[in-house]
């Protein structure tokens, strides 16, 4: 099992991570080696060594989840409302540039307006990631785009103006005759 790096886990993710650690405790009791446990549970040797040290000091209870690192400031009801408002789009909340979509700064402002709760931009990112939202950049296409003209340009103009690629290797080899040495 591989874990996401650099972000908070959902409650379900925390339960899954805890289950892996408790499975490791069974392997510790059986006397299995670090490399074997790491391979079986698909984690790093370093994690297994860290878990083993905690297990030696406090048993399987030391491997139990300590819960989230920070208490979430939005209640489940508030989160549901925020999610519904995000789905309505930025235009519904007075942000005039629909093409830009939701930015972390806009979501931060929305949370402040709706619930009078302050978040940092990084905190908003962690909150959204914890609840399964991801960073997506919309594909933008010019309205005036002419596909036929683009194909002609790629086929005819680009090959003429494109600068040949240079390499670090010499392009020619000069030889001198043994007599000129």
TrEMBL record:
Q: Which residues form the Winged helix-turn helix domain?
A: 99-156
The cross-references to InterPro entries, in alphabetical order and at most eight, read: Homeodomain-like_sf, Winged_HTH_dom
Pfam families registered for this protein in UniProt: HTH_23, HTH_33
Q: Which domain of life is it from?
A: Bacteria
> Could you tell me what this protein is called?
Winged helix-turn helix domain-containing protein
């Amino acid at each position: 099992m591989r874990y996401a790096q650099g972000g908070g886990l959902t409650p379900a993710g925390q339960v899954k991570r805890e289950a892996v650690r408790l499975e490791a405790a069974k392997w510790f009791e059986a006397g299995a080696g670090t490399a074997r446990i790491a391979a079986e549970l698909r984690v790093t040797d370093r994690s297994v060594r860290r878990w083993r040290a905690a297990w030696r000091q406090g048993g399987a209870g030391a491997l139990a989840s300590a819960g989230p690192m920070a208490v979430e400031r939005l209640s489940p009801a508030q989160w549901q409302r925020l999610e519904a408002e995000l789905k309505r789009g930025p235009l519904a909340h007075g942000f005039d540039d629909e093409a830009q979509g939701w930015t972390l700064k806009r979501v931060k402002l929305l949370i402040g307006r709706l619930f009078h709760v302050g978040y940092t931009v990084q905190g908003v990112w962690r909150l959204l990631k914890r609840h399964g939202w991801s960073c997506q950049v919309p594909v933008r296409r010019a309205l005036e785009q002419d596909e036929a003209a683009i194909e002609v340009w790629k086929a005819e103009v680009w090959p003429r103006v494109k600068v040949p690629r240079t390499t670090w290797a010499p392009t020619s080899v000069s030889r001198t005759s043994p007599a000129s040495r």
